[in-house]
Amino acid sequence: MPAQTREFHGAGLGLRRALLGPLLSMDQGAVDFLEVAPENWIGVGGRYGRQFRAMAERYPVVLHGLSLDIGGPDPLDAELVHAVRELMGEIDVPLYSEHLTYCAAEGHLYDLLPIPFTEEAVHYVVSRVKQVQDIIGEPIALENASYYAQPHRELTEAQFINAVVAESGCELLLDVNNIYVNSVNHGYDALDFLDTLPLDRARYIHVAGHFDEADDLKVDTHGADVIDPVWDLLEAAYQRVGSLPTLLERDFNLPPITTLLQEVEQVRRLQRGAMQPQTAAQS
Questions:
Q1: Residue numbers of the domain that contains 26
Q2: CB of 153 within 8 A of CB of 112?
Q3: Helix, strand, or coil here: 57?
Q4: Quick one: CA dihedral 10, 16, 17, 18, positive or negative?
Q5: CA distances, 279 to each of 26, 60, 238, 273 (Å)
Q6: Within a domain: residue 130?
Q7: What is the spatial distance between Cα 184 and Cα 58, in angstroms, rounded to a whole number?
């Protein structure tokens, strides 16, 4: 069973290979935790491997997978899950998360695609989540995903997410940018949607930027600065769930590390604001 001696909190940043040098040279307290895709680091040795393990000694590291394919038709990749479990034990990882999507069908599709919102799909996904959790030895977290079309639905998106979380016992990785993107693309109120999610199972939060294809089409890219409506949604989430650990996602168009750390600090400011009423009430 993975070690559970290391928790994570505060504001984190995604570890990309292009950021290894800047992250190793930044001040120790600049971020509170790091997030990595395990597929990019399993079995990596040499200079990159040494740098990665040096970062893992300095900061808690959470794993956010890209290829588990929790909703796809291909057999579950148990070999990958066992490798993830081994990495969790090696660097003392407090959490493994994935996307509530599918990404393979007779081979990888290199995209994160929406699972049909049906009762049949709920039961199918739940059985696969339980397989993963049996290997990992603890609950995983699944992220509410962005999507651009959903041709087959018997349930709403929120009903689907709630059912998977309730029946599998997994936790929720709450992505506020995905809520915003979907709210624009599918014409619903972001705050109303937030309130329909299983927030009592939220373990941590993602915040990111996106691309404006048109006024009514936003694309979840993680390649731009976070915009004000998404910051507002993050603040609203803190009002509901408290100042959960929150990760700033930035995958490409990487600005200087100082710019990224300014957004990390904005996360911290919102977290401090969420904690102030509670502190005042206790004093």
A1: 11-282
A2: no
A3: helix
A4: negative
A5: 31, 26, 14, 10
A6: yes
A7: 39
3-state SS assignment for residue 154: coil
Nearest C-alpha neighbor of 236 from the set 201, 197, 184: 197
Report which of 115, 37, 131, 123 is spatially closest to residue 81, judged by C-alpha positions. Answer: 131
How do the residues of the chain divide into helix, strand and coil, expressed in percent and rounded to 5? Answer: 45, 20, 35
3-class DSSP assignment, residue 171: strand
What's the sign of the alpha-carbon dihedral 89, 131, 121, 191? negative
Q: Which of 69, 66, 63, 86 is nearest to 1 (CA)?
A: 86
Q: Inter-axis angle of helices 119-136 and 78-91, to 10 degrees?
A: 50
Give the whole-angstrom CA distance, residue 75 versus residue 70: 10
Confirm whether pTM is higher than 0.85. yes
| Torsion (CA) 168, 171, 176, 182 in degrees, nearest 10 | 0
Match 């979907």 to its residue by tokens. Answer: 182
Residue 252's CATH number: 3.20.20.150
pLDDT in 10s for each residue of the chain, 283 residues: 443 456 899 999 999 888 888 988 888 889 999 999 999 999 999 999 999 999 999 999 999 998 898 988 889 999 999 999 999 999 999 999 999 997 645 566 456 778 899 999 999 999 999 999 999 999 999 999 988 777 778 999 999 999 999 999 999 999 999 999 999 988 999 999 999 999 999 999 999 987 677 677 767 776 678 999 999 999 999 999 999 999 999 987 888 999 999 999 999 999 999 987 544 444 3
Domain membership of residue 103 (yes or no) is yes
Within-domain flag for 2: no
Question: Would residue 183 count as lying in a domain?
Answer: yes
DSSP per-residue codes, 34-52: EEE-GGGTTT--HHHHHHH
